[in-house]
Amino acid sequence: YFAAALASTHVYDHTAGNATLALGINQEELEELLWFFRREDQSTWNYSILVLSFVAMILGLLLLAINIVRNRKRKIHMCIEAVQTAQQAELEAKQALM
């Protein structure tokens, strides 16, 4: 029905009465469709989507920063453990020689 309405070249005056349309849509359904597909100022929608995208970007950057800090701490901790293990092995080797 909707595709036929889009392809139609006839202009419908929705204030002309209470007649049923040729497509089988009555006046109430037509008013509902006109309300649903109305044109209005989209700036509030655009700004809300812009704010939502900024929030998502900030959340992504925050998670990235947390991941970078944790990886850096993990690598430093592994390096310190490797040095301590090497020192422990060197101390045991010296004690074995004495």
Automatic annotation (TrEMBL):
The keyword DNA-binding does not apply. Keywords: Membrane, Transmembrane, Transmembrane helix. GO terms for cellular component: plasma membrane. One of its GO terms (biological process) is bile acid and bile salt transport. One of its GO terms (molecular function) is transmembrane transporter activity. Signal peptide: none annotated. InterPro entries: OST-beta_subunit (IPR052678), OSTbeta (IPR029387). The chain crosses the membrane at residues 45-69. The keyword Cytoplasm does not apply. It comes from the Eukaryota. PANTHER family: ORGANIC SOLUTE TRANSPORTER SUBUNIT BETA-RELATED, RICIN B LECTIN DOMAIN-CONTAINING PROTEIN. This is Organic solute transporter subunit beta. It comes from Tyto alba (Barn owl).
